[in-house]
Amino acid sequence: MSSSTSKQFSFSSQHVASSPSQANNNNNNLNNNQKKKNNGKKEKEALLMEYGTTEIESTFGNIFSSSSSDVKNNSSKAFHTACCFIAPTEIWEPIQEMRSVMDKAYERWPPHINFLFPFIPEQYFEQAQELIREKLARVEPFDITFSGVNYFAKNSSVMWLDQDEESIKKLQQVQALIAELFPYCDEKKNEKGEFVPHLTVGQQALKFVEKKVKELNSKWKPVTVRVNEVCLIYRPDKETSFSVIHRVPLGPGL
């Protein structure tokens, strides 16, 4: 019994003992594991920031192929498509100046206000744009004013261009009409169940966001733009920038 116990302790002692090279290898493994853990956390934070969820891998590709060819029978939504308003390029410069240093989605998204995101699979775009065109035929083009910078208070707070009250009402009207067609995509609301139109310019830690927003507002000059179309946009994968597939005009058209 004692001999067996002695051998067991002797084995344990030899097993625990390690050479300097083994110790270095163990430390390297620990460091690498910690780096992977930190990188995984950062990746999840980035996904949450851009998409509102980390479960997006299965939304790219042809997973949404359906036996139905009619968009009216569809209930699937995709994170690689969106229905939005894209700000006219003549006001991009001051917006992109902010986004280039503060917005994690700067290279993938144009300056935009999402009406529905996630949206429907791109295979239904042709039918969808016709339905949206009919809906928006009753809405005349209108102006909105980006009055300043506001933010959603979260751990990583989203900063965005706010609009005046009249602009918000008009954008909410457009969003509500489109959402009637695709109610299963109508999920980005505040705690009151309201759609809050916002053009994201960046993210900031909660403890610094008020100071940053004050700084940005001291430099921002209100700008008025025309809303005369809605864009259906698409990208094939997470690394590719969105492209406009359809531009749907407001108003009765020709």
UniProtKB/TrEMBL annotation:
It holds the Pfam family 2_5_RNA_ligase2. Residues 1-41 are annotated as: Disordered. Gene3D superfamilies: Cyclic phosphodiesterase. Residues 1-14, 24-33 have a biased composition (Low complexity). It comes from the Eukaryota. InterPro entries: Cyclic_Pdiesterase. PANTHER family: 2'-5' RNA LIGASE FAMILY PROTEIN, RNA LIGASE/CYCLIC NUCLEOTIDE PHOSPHODIESTERASE. This is Predicted protein. It comes from Naegleria gruberi. The lineage of its organism: Eukaryota, Discoba, Heterolobosea, Tetramitia, Eutetramitia.
